[in-house]
Amino acid sequence: LKYERLSNGVTEILQKDAASCMTVHEKFLALGTHYGKVYLLDVQGNITQKFDVVSITLLRTHLQGCKTASPVKINQISLDESGEHMGVCSEDGKVQVFGLYSAEEFHETFDCPIKIVAVHPHFVRSHFKQFVTGGKKLLLYERGWMNRWKPSVLHEGEGNIRNVKWRGHLIAWANNMGVKILDMISKQRITNVPRDDISLRPDMYPCSLCWKDNLTLIIGWGNSVKICSVKERHASEMRDLPNRYVEIVFQFDTEFYISGLAPICDQLVILSYVKEISEKTEVECCARPRLDIVQPLPESCEEISSDALTVRGFQENECRDYHLEYSEGESLFYIISPRDVVVAKERDQDDHIDWLLEKKKYEEALMAAEISQKTIKKHKILDIGLAYINHLMEKGEYDLAARKCQKILGKNTELWEFEVYKFKEIGQLKSISRYLPRRDPVLKPLIYEMVLHEFLESDYEGFATLVKEWPGDLYNNTIIVQAVVDHLKKDPQNRTLLRTLAELYTYDQRYGRALEIYLTLRHKDVFQLIHKHNLFSSIRDKIVLLMDFDSEKAVDMLLDNEDKISVSITSSWHGSPMLYLHKLFKRDHHKGQRYHEKQISLYAEYDRPNLLPFLRDSTHCPLEKALEICQQRNFVEETVYLLSRMGNSRSALKMIMEELQDVDKAIEFAKEQDDGELWEDLILYSIDKPPFITGLLNNIGTHVDPILLIHRIKEGMEIPNLRDSLVKILQDYNLQILLREGCKKILVADSLSLLKKMHRTQMKGVLVDEENICESCLSPILPSDASKSFSVIVFHCRHMFHRECLPVSNTVSSVQFCNICSAKHRGPGSAVLEMKK
């Protein structure tokens, strides 16, 4: 909670008078004093109205001949919920109930002090014109017929009534013995809560009552707190008992004496009267009162916060001099003492931010303001953010201060420029350079130029980074280019400045100069520059330089843009043509065919693994030239391929056997050529070489009859693994026989299945009606006169003829065939049935 004194009119009142009681309405405050006056105040403490309750007492004293009259203390003030009617009672026994905005009034004087008065919460309504007063008796006044007030005794005989609170249909009051609750609907008393410590004088340590809601009563007396809940009794438990009962749900003791209670959410606010032993005199004296917030537990409580209040004159006050009133809607708590009125409020986010700023916790304050920006009234996020930036700069955390500028300054260009100049004054432009806005908003060009000049003077790499990251339209490019040129005069070989100058030329669309610098530096961005700005016409005489720099990228670029740049291979290309021609051939075997002869030499010189694939895929290379090159370099595999491609398979096979001596490759070659004479040559060459015979026996079985080879083997020749080879030949032969038999079975089964299917199909009937015609005479196949005899021939091909229209067959066989299908070579089409009548 936070605290402040209620000032203005209250200060003026308490300089001459002393507060005795106060009640709080959401619209105003009502303050009673020891001098018998009632003041209506606004929430700021300004006096709006004033009532003098003791005027009748003074008048009566004057009529009796007394020269002086002592003012009387106001004991209690009561307001209805509307705030339009007020009840006041005083120490001289006077009770007044009147309308603040009407002429309605009731007043009565009793022969004893009246401690309490409470008007009905809905007194403004005509059928709720009720109020209670308490002195030695608790009296209920009700307005009846002819606007007369009828009193009735609700309770008496247990000492003075010390406190009363009316909520809804329930009235709670405290006397010397305890607390009672009355149900106004049934006019039955439903409970009696006795006080715990009977040793305390009830007039010095009065009971505090507070309704939390319509069914929850909070009782504080001495140092004991009870929270009571009013509940409905079950119908089966009624008998002669009230229909409601009270259950104490929380009960605990406090460290000090209770002067007032108020609810705050599910917690309690307790005003405590404190006594302590003076260190100087060692005598018990009054200390500052405490305002505690506690969390009630079933048999104890948990302290949430505790504050000691320095009220005026606390050294002379007693427990009965303090009162605690509260405004339900706004969580305002009023601590009333004779010489002071203090207002306690829940701390809001503004208070929290104030505390954080006071502790220099700016980041937390900024976060709290952002979270509660809709509720804070005192602070602005921008002001807190600027204070945070200044704080960081004072601490020397320039980079963090610059980073926070992005979030705090947002799109405010004036603030951005102001902060940049602040960074410049302390020589920290580099710190803020990374965080300057580059779009939405954009600052003045002078700001960016100022930062670039700062880097150019001391940090070439940082300058290059900014030029690369910043869009070229943020600053005057001409000014920066001139500044870089001036620095290059001092250091003309500085690669960083040259690279940056090329980028600046690019921004300025002077691509030719940028390209020259990139090529001079052999910079990787040269290809991106050419592609992005379509500079292909500018690189016709620079292809060799590009090849020397990065042949892979250069070749890809040339091939991807064949329509934009024509390439002519010259002697200055050195080894680069091979890569270009290789990739060109991979993309299209027919492009660059005029260079295929040159490619053979290049592959033979630099990349033999790709020579044979090239020879296989190319249809334009000169075979004689290729054979000459391969024979000169003794490339056996390539020579073999060329010989076979040129039709000289025998020479190719001979080369495999003599040069490579690889029987497996020779067999593979013979399989590819599928030439019986090659197999004969292979057998003749291998017949005196046992290892070759083994290879042939293992692989020849599926292409040549192995008997031809076995008959030619000389007797007594030792052949390695002969047994295994013969076994393999027999296994291969058996496998072939099994495959043939399996295929035969499948073929027979399929043939039989199809034959049966055809037979079933041909056995089916064929519909013949008057719509069908004879394929020979083209007249209806059935006669119009059904009584006449007729004969019809129907073939499986569904062609139909009259018997007499079908030509007589010249064959000896009795089977007839469809003339139409026979003429079209569709097959015999034999007749399926003959219909006669």
Describe the protein.
By secondary structure, the protein is α+β, with helices and mostly antiparallel strands. The longest helix has 42 residues, at 722-763. The strands form 9 sheets. A 4-stranded antiparallel beta sheet has the order 1-30-29-28, with helices on one face. Helices cover 38% and strands 23% of the residues. The protein has 28 helices and 33 strands. Plays a role in vesicle-mediated protein trafficking to lysosomal compartments including the endocytic membrane transport pathways. It comes from Zosterops lateralis melanops.
Structural topology:
Blueprint: E1 2-5, H1 9-16, E2 19-24, E3 29-33, E4 37-41, E5 47-52, H2 55-63, E6 74-79, E7 85-90, E8 94-99, E9 105-109, E10 116-119, E11 130-134, E12 137-143, E13 149-156, E14 163-167, E15 170-174, E16 178-183, E17 188-194, E18 208-213, E19 216-221, E20 224-232, E21 244-253, E22 257-264, E23 267-273, E24 275-277, E25 284-286, E26 290-296, E27 301-308, E28 323-327, E29 332-337, E30 340-345, H3 349-358, H4 362-371, H5 381-395, H6 398-409, H7 413-425, H8 429-433, H9 445-458, H10 460-469, H11 477-490, H12 495-507, H13 511-521, H14 525-533, H15 543-549, H16 551-560, H17 576-587, H18 596-606, H19 611-617, H20 623-632, H21 636-645, H22 649-660, H23 663-673, H24 676-686, H25 690-699, H26 706-712, H27 722-763, E31 791-795, E32 800-802, H28 819-823, E33 831-836
Antiparallel strand pairs: 1-30, 2-3, 3-4, 4-5, 6-7, 7-8, 8-9, 10-11, 11-12, 12-13, 14-15, 15-16, 16-17, 18-19, 19-20, 20-21, 22-23, 23-26, 24-25, 26-27, 28-29, 29-30, 31-32, 31-33
Helix pairs in contact: 3-4, 4-5, 5-6, 9-10, 9-11, 10-12, 11-12, 12-13, 13-14, 15-16, 16-17, 17-18, 18-20, 19-21, 20-21, 21-22, 22-23, 22-24, 25-27
